[in-house]
Design a protein that fits this description.
The chain has eight helices and no strands. Helix 3 runs antiparallel to helix 5, helix 5 runs antiparallel to helix 7 and helix 7 runs antiparallel to helix 8.
Length: 198
């Protein structure tokens, strides 16, 4: 009985992610064609769907920011506010990840969903990974801000619509590789030394 609901949720999730990924290209098209209103509505739709799918305080804040940026773009007939959305997203993720360092790091929370009895060494590693993501969001947010304020529309679209996602993928791949190496070393240290005694 829950299959239709799952299918709808999956469709909404996939649609919202696709719209978010294509958002920079949509902004670029809106600038070139003069249809900024349509892009502003798209931004609001992305944020509202994200909040409806997961009604958290963070997603509500993102929705409010998206609506404010869209309203500013329409009020001043300028695409610049729409180009600040990637900056706002990085700031939001930085806030979530950074705040979690005051208690249980968010990466550790995800890890404990799979492995509740997480070793102390693994918990320390999760904290370092969370810190690494905070650094990434700072640098990526600054790059997004630079692209919005000082670069061409084409470069803004290229960075926020492609390069940023490649960098995110590289972060995931690098973390997976490091985690695999750390886990193997940890398991190697835990193995009993030497052969059996006669």
């Amino acid at each position: 009985m829950n299959r239709p609901n799952r299918a709808v949720r999956f469709f909404i999730t996939a649609l919202s992610w696709a719209a978010a990924i294509l958002y920079p290209a949509a902004v670029y098209a809106g600038i070139r064609t003069g249809h900024l209103a349509a892009v502003a509505l798209l931004l609001c739709a992305i944020a509202l769907v994200r909040w409806i799918r997961s009604p958290t305080g963070g997603n509500l804040a993102i929705a409010a920011i998206a609506i404010a940026l869209s309203a500013a773009a329409l009020l001043f007939a300028d695409a610049l506010p729409l180009k600040f959305y990637p900056v706002a997203m990085n700031a939001a993720f930085l806030f979530v990840f950074g705040r979690s360092l005051l208690s249980t790091p968010i990466v550790e929370k995800f890890a404990r969903m799979k492995e509740p009895d997480l070793p102390a060494q693994a918990a320390a590693y999760c904290r370092r990974v969370t810190q690494a993501w905070c650094v990434f969001f700072v640098l990526n947010g600054l790059a997004a801000l630079d692209s919005a304020l000082f670069r061409s529309d084409a470069w803004w679209t290229l960075y926020n619509g492609l390069i940023a996602y490649i960098l995110i993928g590289a972060m995931f791949a690098g973390e997976f590789l490091i985690r695999t190496i750390v886990r193997r070393r940890t398991l190697g240290l835990e193995k009993p030394q030497g052969g059996g005694n006669a």
